[in-house]
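Predict the holo structure. Ligand: protoporphyrin IX containing FE.
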Amino acid sequence: MNILEHPLLHDVVALAHPVLYGIVTLAALYVAWSGLLRARSLHCDWKHPFPWKKHVFWGSIVLGLWGIGHLSGFAGAMFAWNTTFFEPAHAYTGVLMLPLALVGYFTGRRLDRVKKRRKLLPAIHGINNMILVILALYQLYSGYEMFHMVPWEII
Ligand code: HEM
Ligand code: HEM
């Protein structure tokens, strides 16, 4: 049998994307929570310790994976249905997340490298990334709804 047609490989590839991105969404909630603490300190004068290094480290992992998320999703879709854009809302939202992830990463990198008191750039970074978090929660919901449409071979 051709290894690419093995039922176990089919299921593992189709499952890899939803499992990985479910975990990434949890990591994103941590980054968003620490970012919101920072926003309260910067804009409301309500002082909080900000886990700067952890925010940058986990934020970079989350945005990097969101930026390439559509690729693993399309790979899963090829294995599941032999086509892409099978579920247009989930697919287009995934593609839309790429430019937003780039904006989020490069604004964050600038804030990290050139430290000074400012309000506008953190606000652009924060709003852009909170939109991404909302889109990711929508992806979690629509991705969960897609589960029963995947023709699982073994599971
Ligand atoms: C899911 C990803 C991310 C989310 C949801 C997020 C969210 C936020 C939010 C809400 C703030 C507060 C903004 C404000 O006070 O107006 C913030 C601040 C900050 N973020 Fe992010 N962020 C993410 C990723 C990143 C990345 C990848 C980096 C660096 C490469 C980064 C670096 C920073 C820095 C340095 C600040 C503090 C800015 C300052 O106090 O001047 N963030 N983030
Ligand atoms: C947040 C980042 C995410 C992005 C950028 C993303 C992107 C994509 C894309 C572009 C596809 C291909 C759809 C098609 O061609 O019809 C896809 C498929 C899929 N996505 Fe997502 N997705 C994300 C999160 C999730 C999450 C959290 C789940 C799970 C609850 C999920 C479950 C699925 C499923 C089940 C498929 C079908 C293919 C497969 O089983 O691998 N996605 N995704």
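The chain has one domain: 3-147. The mean pLDDT is 94.
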